[in-house]
């Protein structure tokens, strides 16, 4: 394969979990259920094949280390994509900041002090347009914001296909009693609206989640749930499910551990021009405790 | 009035009489390179595992900056059912960790928490977790209030020794 195309595909795979590429982007918190006075967590963030091992590239986040110096999963000279922002929402709705951020060859890492009691949300959200077209017989791809679209993409391009994309990656951590305030959806893109609190998950119990697209229940969302630690087992152990007409899905956790949940939706309904289809993805790292 | 009618009356009025509960918990001696006294939570749950009443929590109260509370979540069943909604320390509940040996606790229905405990089916739950060690959780089912003096026990296998529950009407 032409190395340029290979790297472009890989870079796309990182931003667009809808593609067939196996790379997975994730954040892994050191704990999700905490006690004591203003406890700390540390979070690793990476893009990898196996969960949750650092073996490919770090997850680049604004303000976490020197992202410009870090491997981005692309070839030298590739146009750098904007580095996404990390949001840390405290139980009272205020924004907390990450501490001790750094970025290495395989992972980025940062700390968060939970100064308030209740549930915090860590989120990385992205949205924009994805276009592909043919130029002199060669396939071209572009990702960016709606504002830059007209500037960067020729309007009369051959075989032009435009998708509206959004992705969101989340982690929940709780100090003391779980609270609900950070679970309120933003109303944009594909989101998780938990019925079961995401820091109250136990092996052998079923958890119920509702998925929303732009704040409305989303039917037929494909859900994949993979337990971490697959380096040391033969089977991926993936649980597949899809949401019902009310956007609801129920997952029964087979054992305790860290899980990676990914939800994807492709639709041609309610698509904003110039896009003709919509691709939305959501992922979360969830900790399931032993009863 | 015939005596055989008096007896059921006496039973029906049992909640009005003083009933009490003795709980003994054995912390076993372990042959390990690094030993720390376990954190222990003792509570009552309903048959559906919902929380009914806390009896005791033994943890490291003396560490500075409440550092000992950081590990309370490792009593993970108790943390889920009760601990996470409490502001520690709690009077009459929080206590220091205990040494190897058998420890006896006495609870009476004239005082909290048994005072407010409605009649019904319950389980005594004892959960122990040890720093750089393991965790063990044991349950003993019983009915409250007791109709007669009864004693039950269960033997732990790793972090707990014998647990004994004696109920007196």
UniProtKB/TrEMBL annotation, chain B:
- Name the UniProt record assigns to this protein: DUF2271 domain-containing protein
Pfam families, A to Z: DUF2271
The UniProt keywords, alphabetically, are:
Signal
Q: Which residues form the signal peptide?
A: 1-18
Q: Write down the InterPro entries for this protein, in alphabetical order.
A: DUF2271 (IPR014469)
Highest taxon above the source species: Bacteria
